[in-house]
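STRUCTURE:
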């Protein structure tokens, strides 16, 4: 691999890290919605999340274009091609995590506030989602072998929480708004953690 190719690939990786850190920021601010009750700071959180989602979308397009140009210019093979392909897959996972956070914000806005006492049990799974995504970052970019296992363990816990929620819903004929909000948010959290598992698995 030429020096020019290595430099270009490093710039792509740096941009991917930047996009990932934005996603972690979005996820952290989404979790804050479970704790903040006052209208003004909640509105600030909504605005900050939306601004970061827009920024993530811009970065996604820039990185995808950079990857395409890299493939056309250097025509990587073998290990180099697999690395570029992994970057493209991780980019999709990172982007989807940000979008799921946006969906959680919409539930908070239009169905039930996540800070409501009836939804306090969502704080733990959102914290777990944060931990899973942080650990996936360390697994991918810092080769943390233990982090992959941590993400997989969190995935099992979140899957169980989501399945339990579905079983509870199945017992009811009519669902109150907080129950609808809970299952929607848990579904998005379950998908977020699935993407974290995908990301961490590229370190294996």
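SEQUENCE:
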């Amino acid at each position: 691999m030429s020096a020019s190719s290595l430099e270009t690939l490093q710039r792509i990786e740096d941009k991917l890290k930047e996009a990932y850190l934005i996603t972690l920021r979005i996820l952290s601010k989404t979790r804050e919605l479970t704790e903040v009750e006052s209208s003004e700071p909640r509105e600030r959180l909504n605005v900050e999340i939306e601004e970061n989602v827009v920024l993530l979308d811009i970065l996604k397009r820039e990185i995808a274009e950079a990857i395409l140009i890299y493939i056309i210019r250097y025509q990587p093979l073998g290990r180099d091609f697999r690395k570029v392909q992994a970057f493209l897959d991780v980019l999709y996972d990172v982007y989807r995590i940000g979008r799921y956070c946006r969906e959680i914000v919409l539930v908070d806005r239009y169905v039930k506030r996540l800070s409501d006492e009836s939804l306090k049990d969502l704080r733990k799974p959102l914290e777990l989602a944060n931990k899973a995504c942080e650990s996936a970052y360390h697994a991918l970019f810092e080769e943390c072998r233990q982090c992959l296992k941590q993400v997989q363990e969190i995935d099992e816990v979140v899957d169980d929480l989501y399945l339990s929620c579905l079983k509870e819903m199945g017992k009811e004929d009519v669902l109150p708004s907080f129950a609808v909000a809970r299952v929607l948010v848990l579904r998005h959290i379950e998908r977020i953690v699935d993407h974290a598992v995908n990301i961490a698995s590229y370190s294996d």
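REMARK: The domain at 3-201 is CATH 1.20.58.220 (Methane Monooxygenase Hydroxylase; Chain G, domain 1).
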